[in-house]
Write a structure and sequence with these properties.
The complex is a heterodimer of chains A (221) and B (200).
Chain A: H1 3-17, H2 20-39, H3 44-67, H4 69-77, H5 79-85, H6 90-119, H7 124-151, H8 159-185, H9 191-220
Helix pairs in contact in A: 1-6, 2-3, 2-6, 3-6, 3-7, 3-8, 6-7, 6-9, 7-8, 7-9, 8-9
Chain B: E1 3-13, E2 16-27, E3 31-35, H1 42-50, E4 57-62, E5 65-66, H2 70-75, E6 76-79, H3 91-100, H4 107-116, H5 132-140, E7 150-154, H6 162-177, E8 181-185, E9 195-199
Helix pairs in contact in B: 3-4
Classes of the chains: A mainly alpha (221), B alpha/beta (200).
């Protein structure tokens, strides 16, 4: 088994044995979305209008909540040091960790989104588009988030700093995703937004592991 | 034959210069004990040798491979102060991943390594349930598997009992008899042959 598979299975195993690490952000996602109809209005027209924004903002915040744990525990117990000095490719190891993070954070959000879309009165086509934007963009959230998490790895109580670093980079994703879902509600074309989201994903996939590796080496030095 | 060459190494942390123009060479079979007062730069030196920290200036090489290169990092096995164990994983899973980062290991090798450090029936025990000494033993059991030529051990005997220290000393001696190199820091008295001492 190569180091990529080993790291991926290790991280998944660790998270599944300590489920609060990925269940807390997921519960936040579900609870926050469920509260909006109570706080704003149970009226279907109002809710369906603001649904894309609600789902996407909540999704970003729940991913942000989970990012602190991406490298923090491995840093505390010294495994991160071993990863950095290993002769194996550090970007490959970090890519495996980021994919594990997405499988436990982004994927459950995608799977839950139809249910939450229905509670916000989204029509079937818009739910399909919402899932598509989440599928295209949540991996980017994990990949971009990994850069921020690796920059702040040695800093204590760095939650706010991580938000300040990462949220501006999430803004294009938020704009294109919500715009795609909103436009689909009016049967307008959404190809442009989807292409932009796909481009962001490709660029993140190509650059994030290398930038994260560099940031991590600098943080540990 | 392996050769570790350190030349003109200078290390600064904050405004403090820990050491400057440090040079030494280690050949196959040699053991170097780094000693010095707390804060004198022992751990910093080991981290620089491991490629974890960068020095202000100086050069490092193992068999003419520079620090940071694939071959240099393949030749290094570093154990620091931190346990390098994840509490959610079993002893064997932890050891498997730790050794996988530097070499490959078979199932039998993992079992044998744990047996060698007196943890025969602890393969499926969570690292969180181990004592400090047992955690140290799990990490040090990697010494029975790794193929790396240069071992960098930061306070390897911390939390170990007399029997544990003896097992690790024997393994270090065997490694050096087989042509390896070991650099270690410890405040304890060592029973290791051909031991050189570097005072920082």
């Amino acid at each position: 088994m190569n180091i990529f598979t080993k790291t991926l299975t290790r991280d998944l195993k660790m998270s599944l044995r300590n489920p609060s690490s990925f269940l807390n952000p997921l519960l936040f996602f579900v609870i926050a979305i469920s509260l909006f109809p109570l706080a704003i209005s149970p009226e279907s027209h109002t809710l369906s209008n603001i649904a894309p924004g609600i789902v996407w903002v909540t999704c970003m915040l729940s991913v942000l909540l989970s990012l602190n744990a991406l490298f923090h525990y491995d840093y505390d117990n010294g495994v991160l040091e071993q990863m950095v000095i290993s002769h194996h490719s550090l970007p490959l190891i970090l890519l495996a960790k980021t994919i594990a993070h997405w499988l436990l954070t982004g994927l459950p959000i995608i799977l839950l989104s139809p249910l939450l879309g229905m509670t916000l009165f989204l029509d079937t086509k818009s739910i399909y588009v919402l899932m598509l934007t989440l599928l295209l963009a949540t991996p980017s959230l994990s990949l971009i988030g990994a850069i921020g998490a690796s920059l702040i790895v040695g800093i204590k109580n760095s939650g706010m700093l991580l938000s300040l670093l990462i949220l501006p980079l999430y803004i294009p994703i938020l704009i294109f995703s919500t715009s795609a879902v909103s436009q689909s509600q009016f049967n307008l074309p959404i190809n442009g937004q989807l292409y932009f989201l796909a481009s962001i994903l490709l660029i993140s996939l190509m650059t994030s592991p290398f930038v994260s590796a560099l940031a991590l080496k600098t943080s540990l030095d | 034959m392996s050769k570790l060459i350190v030349s003109d190494l200078t290390c600064q942390r904050g405004y403090n210069e820990l050491f400057s123009n440090l040079s030494f060479e280690l050949n196959s079979g040699e053991i170097l004990k780094i000693s010095g007062a707390n804060g004198s730069g022992k751990t910093s030196l080991l981290k620089i040798l491991a490629g974890l920290n960068s020095a202000e200036s100086g050069r490092l090489s193992i068999n003419n491979n520079k620090a940071g290169s694939y071959d240099y990092q393949s030749d290094i096995f570093y154990l620091g102060h931190l346990p390098a164990l994840s509490p959610e994983l079993h002893c064997k899973e932890n050891l498997d991943y730790l050794t996988q980062l530097s070499t490959s290991s078979s199932n039998q090798e993992l079992d044998d390594a744990l047996t060698n450090v007196g943890l025969k029936n602890f393969e499926n025990e969570y690292a969180a349930n181990l004592s400090a000494g047992q955690k140290r033993r799990v990490v040090l059991s990697a010494l029975f598997i790794t193929q790396s030529k240069v071992w960098l051990l930061d306070e390897p005997f911390t939390a170990l009992d007399a029997d544990g220290i003896n097992v690790i000393e024997t393994q270090i001696t065997k490694h050096c008899d087989d042509g390896g190199i070991c650099v270690l820091t410890t405040h304890q008295k060592c029973n290791l042959p051909s031991l050189r001492t570097l005072v920082l």
